Each structure stands twice: as structure tokens, then as C-alpha cells.
Amino acid sequence: MASHAPRYAEAPTDWGRLPITPRPGIETAFDVARDDLVAVLTSLRDEHHYQQLMEIAGVDFPERAERFEVVYCLLSLTKNHRLRLHVTTDETTPVPSVTSLWPVAGWLEREVFDMYGVIFVGNPDLRRILTDYGFEGHPQRKDFPLTGYVELRYSEAEKRVVYEPVSLAQDFRTFDFLTPWEGPEYCLPGDEKAERQGAGPTPAPAPTTPAPAPKTPAPAPKTPKAATEKP
Asked: What are the tens digits of pLDDT across the range 23-78?
């Protein structure tokens, strides 16, 4: 049966006059300016036949002036090929929404907004989608603490879930990473129960030497039968 899609994916060689900059690597990826984002994606969809928007991802580089990268992953069904488009921004500069090109971008942009705080201008419903109501901060940022800022539990007194500041029972812990058979040099809680009062650790019992086995007496020599008979 003949297939309308090519058997092997090949990157197109003619991109026209698109204002894009190729990125190094074995995959097809480009950098694009924020102001050119919608026009480039429109051309890729209509003229270069990248029909589907598969994903919108975020990346955080805190050391950069524009710390966030928004990555658009496109798929061409007719060319059997994928490409990525990268655009940079910071915490306050908005990125144009592409919900007019792909309606599914509304949900994808909300995820990036929730996790990284990137603002998408033109999104009709830009609100959190993964975190809880009243959540503060953006969990996928590199400067967000792994423990978070608040924790929740069910209160029997109030009969509801309550939020409380995170409290760690062991703020400072030391690990010696010794081998199990050597053991640590310090005394662990509970080890004092195995020690005598003021006498230090219980000494190991001295090895006992087994008593020698009793010797069995040798049997008497047999007298020849000829010497015992009377003539």
C-alpha cells in the first residue's frame, strides 16, 4: 500500500525569508524574536506545512538577562518532520499568544505561566492550571525552594485542610558515609542501653578453649592359643 507521507524525515532546506536563526545541534531548531513569533509560526503552519503544535515548554536560565526560554514544538504530518522554535523573555516582558493559530495553545501557555510565570499577552484565560488556589510563586523556577513555602494538612479541630509554613524537623543533619561494618565514631541515641553504667562498652566474652577429649586405654595384647593349652 502506498503511503502519502515520506518514509524518512528530512529537514527542509528552503525557509524563505523567515527571520529565524538556526541553533546548533542535530535537531532542527531556531531562535526567533518575540515580535516575529506569530508571523513565523503562521508561515510555518501555512507555507511550510507544520500543521500541529505538539507542545509549549519552558526553560529557566537564571544567569541570563532574559532568563526564560519558551519552546514551541511543531510537527509536519506531510513531511514527517519536527522542529522547535525558541523565544526568550524575562519576568515582566510578555510573549505573544498563539491561541489564534492553535486553540490548544491556551492550555499549554497556562502551564508555562503557572510553572515559570511567563506572561502571554492575548491569551483569553491566562490563569493557573496545575497548582492549588492561592499558590504563591512558580515551582519550576531554579530559585524556588524544593520544600516550597507552605504545607497543608487536615485539621481535626477545624475539620478542613489548613495551610501552614513549612517546618523541617531536621534542619541540619550530618552524614559520615562510613561503611556499615565500621560504624560512626559518635554514639547514636539508644546505644547507651548496651553499655554498662560507667564501665564503657560491654566487653566481648573471652574465647574458651575446648577441654581435651579423654584418652581411650589401649586394648591388652592377645595371648597365642598354643601357649595356653596343656600338654
From this structure: 988 888 999 999 999 999 999 999 999 999 999 999 999 999 999 999 999 999 98
Residues in Cβ contact with 23 at an 8 Å cutoff, skipping those fewer than 6 apart = 29, 30, 31, 84, 86
Say if CB 95 and CB 120 are below 8 A apart.
yes
CA distance 192 to 162: 40
C-alpha to C-alpha distance for 80 and 48, rounded to whole angstroms: 12
Q: Per residue in 93-105, pLDDT tens?
A: 999 999 999 999 9
Instruction: Pick the closest to residue 136 from 121, 152, 118, 150 (CA basis).
Output: 150
Residues 114, 130 contacting (CB under 8 angstroms)? yes
Model-level pTM greater than 0.70? Answer: no
Rg (the chain; Cα; Å): 39
